[in-house]
Specification:
The protein is built from 20 helices and 22 strands. The protein is an alpha/beta fold. The protein folds into 4 domains: 195 residues, Succinyl-CoA synthetase domains (Rossmann fold); 189 residues, Rossmann fold; 73 residues, ATP-grasp fold, A domain (Dna Ligase, domain 1, 2-Layer Sandwich); 112 residues, D-amino Acid Aminotransferase, Chain A, domain 1 (2-Layer Sandwich), CATH 3.30.470. It has a 6-stranded mixed β-sheet, with helices on both faces. Strands 17, 18, 19, 20, 21 and 22 form a 6-stranded antiparallel β-sheet that branches. It has a 4-stranded parallel β-sheet with strand order 10-9-11-12, with helices on both faces.
Length: 625
Amino acid sequence: MKAAVVVSSGFAEAGNKAGEAELRAVAARHRIRIVGPNCAGIINTANGLTPTLETLPPRGRVAIISQSGALAGVLLGWAKRDGLGVSKFVSYGNRADVNEVDLLEYLADDVETGVIAVYVETVSDGRAFMEAAARCSEVKPVVVIKAGRGESGQRATLSHTGSLAGSDAVYDAAFRQCGAIRVESAEEMFDLCRAFAGMKQPQGKRVAIVTNSGGPSILAADRAEAVGLAVAEPCEAAREKLAAFLPAHAALKNPIDLTVEATERGYRETLNVLLATAVAEETASFDSAPLRSGCSEPSVSSVAKEYHAAVAINIAPPYLDSLPIARGIADAAHATEKPVAASFLPEEVTADAVAYLQENGVLDFPTPERAVVAMANMARWSVDARGQAWAIGRRWRRPIAHASGAARTPPLPPAPILEPDAMLFLSACGIETPVFMTAATEDEAPLAAACVGFPCVMKVVSPDILHKSERGGVVVGIHNEADALVAFRAIRRKAGDVAFSGVVVYPQIRGAQEVLIGVARDPQFGPVVAVGLGGIYTELLRDVALRVALVDEEEALEMVRSLKGYGILAGARGRPPCDLEALARMVARVSELPFLYPEIAEIDLNPVFVSSAGAVAGDARIITG
């Protein structure tokens, strides 16, 4: 026997780790691969193999792999109800042997599978999961639900960046980087699997909404914009064509409201006009710059007014027949290479029309909002995610070298690493730091301040004081030697009985924006890198972009651009723009350090001062262990 599906529970999930270890040992001794234990089995619809407790779905192109048998059973039940075809199903439970990485590696090459749906609670090996998911995402969509978004399980940590490690934000970043599309619910996963399996792929993010009722279409438009679609007005040429056959009281903006008098011809011709290809030279200016997550679409006045997809909404009164409208939508869908989704409501009135749509290959969604969310997620994969998946292997496999091109690995100072030693180490690694002096006594403090120049900043140096400003360990605006002496005495007094190693003095930097750069080690994914608004606003605003390290300068720049505060860094209200390339170089270099120094647990550079002249680390904390 080469394989076993162990449905039985009562193993590690119930505290019986010894029993699961014995199961694993027996299987290894006899070279038997195990799915489970504590699972709901497997299904292969191509050959009829169905050792499972769950509903048997029709044959098709969607693979479902899940840690939870119950959730997978819900998806299979919906699949049977709505005719969604499934290729493979695996509930792998405790993953004593076969896990999500094994399954993704298999499904990447499975010719019977076109879409992969994944439910995970944790992953066994975060980086192996990313590699496998990235390989899949290059050729077929990977749709993921990750349970456990809350912070209840987050570990205690010593630094700002470390507080993110082990959190759901790392999973978010990992899924984005490997091209997987994360969804929020079982309904959203099912909708998206239906869309990928039954609709054409959108090649952009501009959507046209055609309706016979204002309210639901406005809700759909609001939701579309919230999830990243562009709901722009049609161009003048398109409006002229629409006005030629639609009644004068129809709304020719987007959504296009045909009113309750909408006809089969009205839907058909409106969709035909909106989905027609735009002028080639205008389209090229739009399509040559694929949109990335977190980036805005170019201004609609500067690009072609082409729509990449359409959603047709029919809110049917009981006294009108919806079947002609379904025919018009189906005709338009067949006449274009772009995806067309429908949403016919209420169900009891539109049942015949929905059946016609299904028979003619047009997907109907329970609500218009669910239709646009599915469309947005499809566009995210076709426009953004596949490129991310391709890039991940190239980035992770590149050699780690110093930013200047020459490999340099200066020795890491012994723990605990105090701030002056951390700054010297970072400088030796090629990270810009300001000049500084240290002082251990009252006599040395004024001399140190005079050496760095006035005005200057004085900070406490102590292995026991992590957040210096909260302890009164930072004094700014020191203008002369007398100020320096007063500052030293104040810092020494507020340090109290903790270990006191003196002070460090820096020149006071003015006119720069404060940014946080950090690295921490996540339990599943290893080193992660963060960049965000720094200083006292780190905890207040939580405007932080996170990625699984290693990142290169290009991705580091994308991280910066994804911040809500990006406009501040780019030069808001006439202020000179910051040197974002210098900032990106620093982010990329910091992301390399935990690979060069495995003993580094966390790095926190907060603040990093960024201005038009460059980026310089103003404070550094390095935690080992």
